[in-house]
């Protein structure tokens, strides 16, 4: 059974950076698309970024040019590098693989 564990969240000032990691257990990680979602306070969960098995990427318009998704198949890990963070990026960030979700990691952008 696949399990996903996120890490790397925290409190950062506007303009700062964070890198989130998502470690996946199980087999065939390299053959699957992976995604990051986020859920701001009192809002619905939304797609932030996706990376395919062929390393194709797709981003929400709100994060284009600031966030970068990448993967290391040797470590079964997907990353989300977040630069120039804004207060509106404050949310719980979730890693997703198909129907499997991690527990989330809190990102708070505040001065």
Attribute tags:
111 residues; mainly beta; seven-stranded mixed sheet; four-stranded antiparallel sheet; 50% strand
Global outline: globular
- How many strands in all? 11
* Main sheet overview: 7 strands, mixed
State the distance separating the first and last CA atoms: 40 Å
Order of helices and strands: EEEEEEEEEEE
Would you identify the regions where 5 or more consecutive residues have pLDDT less than 50?
none
Tell me the β content.
over 45%
Helix fraction bin: under 10%
Count the DSSP helices.
0
SSE-based structural type: mainly beta
Radius of gyration using CA atoms only: 13 Å
The averaged pLDDT comes out at 95
Architecture overview:
It is built from no helices and 11 strands. With 111 residues, the chain is an all-beta fold. Strands 2, 4, 5, 6, 9, 10 and 11 form a 7-stranded mixed β-sheet that branches. Strands 1-3-8-7 form a 4-stranded antiparallel β-sheet, with no helix packed on it. The termini are far apart.
């Amino acid at each position: 059974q696949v399990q996903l564990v996120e890490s790397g969240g925290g409190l950062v000032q506007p303009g700062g950076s964070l890198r989130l990691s998502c470690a996946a257990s199980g087999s065939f990680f390299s053959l699957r698309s992976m995604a990051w979602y986020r859920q701001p306070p009192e809002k619905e969960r939304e797609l932030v970024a996706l990376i395919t098995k062929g390393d194709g990427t797709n981003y929400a318009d709100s994060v284009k040019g600031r966030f970068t998704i990448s993967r290391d198949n040797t470590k079964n890990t997907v990353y989300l590098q977040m630069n120039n963070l804004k207060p509106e990026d404050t949310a719980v960030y979730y890693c997703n693989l198909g129907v499997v979700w991690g527990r989330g990691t809190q990102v708070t952008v505040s001065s």
